[in-house]
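Hey all, sorry for the wall of text incoming. These are the two entities for the joint prediction.
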Amino acid sequence: ETGVTQTPRHLVMGMTNKKSLKCEQHLGHNAMYWYKQSAKKPLELMFVYNFKEQTENNSVPSRFSPECPNSSHLFLHLHTLQPEDSALYLCASSQRGVQYFGPGTRLTVT
Amino acid sequence: GIQVEQSPPDLILQEGANSTLRCNFSDSVNNLQWFHQNPWGQLINLFYIPSGTKQNGRLSATTVATERYSLLYISSSQTTDSGVYFCAVGLGNDMRFGAGTRLTVKP
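and here's what came out:
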């Protein structure tokens, strides 16, 4: 499955670092999403972008900052994270509601 | 918000057995999808099925929207079917995931 790619696949960062996650979709979809998957918890929807406009922000802390420069690229900028932010971060894209996921970035905050 | 319950939480099968996974949801939805997450974390879309019945090989799914549930059937299970199966429901792009059913198929 190469329709949605994510980089990096693994990231270890300290609580004072700033890093960014990148997602790219090659499917021509008009919506993109960030999800968080923590151990033993359901996937949590973080952000939704439709045609580059943010349409959902599910009470995500400001230390997570999304950016969608065009309909094919989505970034998640991270700063001053906490250890409880360690999780698998999944990007998805969709057309007419059907979602396709990238492989995820496994983030560890030390 | 919409509540999503999946059952059973864990399921262990012998290769070749059949199984039924259930997803109950609390409100009307216009989007329902089933996903399989493999051991490496990749989520694969199995079905987009807000209503009706669909089949794809050994897998089939049925959603009864008026009664707010969906079923995923796996027939003649194989070891490669192991992983976590998620149901996701919602309105448009706002999707809520269930906690998943962890399936283990033993050879």
